[in-house]
Amino acid sequence: MLVKLYGPEPGGQKRYSQPQCIGARKTRIMGNPDHDKISTSYAERHNLTMRMHMRCFTRLTNAFSKKVENQAYAVALHAMYYNFVRVHQTLRVTPAMAAGVTTRLWEMTDIVAMLEK
After folding, report:
1. 7 — phi, psi (to 5°)?
2. Is residue 96 a contact partner of residue 102, using CB atoms and an 8 Å limit?
3. What's the pLDDT score for residue 28?
4. How far apart are the C-alpha atoms of 12 and 59, rounded to whole Å?
5. What are φ and ψ of residue 84, in 5° steps?
């Protein structure tokens, strides 16, 4: 796997400027991955889904959250909604139902009830 190393922007940080790549290093891949199925598109799609569902991860908006604690709560709620409430188009059920974790479709009220305990 190739890991790119980024340095500080020479002219100081600008709002939309990309950091400068100052090098790269190779790291060993652990396990036994199927090289035909290696793709960054899955990770990028997941990142986009998280950014679209949680506005606190969208930069340059008034919903941007700087507190790590608030972001951790947002990720936890998103994970519960994504896996237990949202019916996925390709699965036609929630991922939790497909994995056999639950047998019923949850609602947001079920998640709120868990928070109140």
Report:
1. -110, 175
2. yes
3. 87
4. 19
5. -115, -25
Q: Is 21 in a helix, a strand, or coil?
A: strand
Token pair for 90? 């390709």
Q: How many other β-carbons are positioned within 10 Å of the β-carbon of residue 84?
A: 21
Residue from 25, 36, 20, 23 nearest 1 by CA? 25
First CA to last CA distance, the chain? 44
Q: Is 113 helix (H, G, I), strand (E, B) or coil?
A: helix
Q: Which helix or strand (DSSP H or E) is residue 69 part of?
A: helix 68-80
Query: pLDDT of 63-82, one tens digit each?
Result: 777 788 988 988 999 999 99
Flag whether the pTM goes above 0.85.
Answer: no
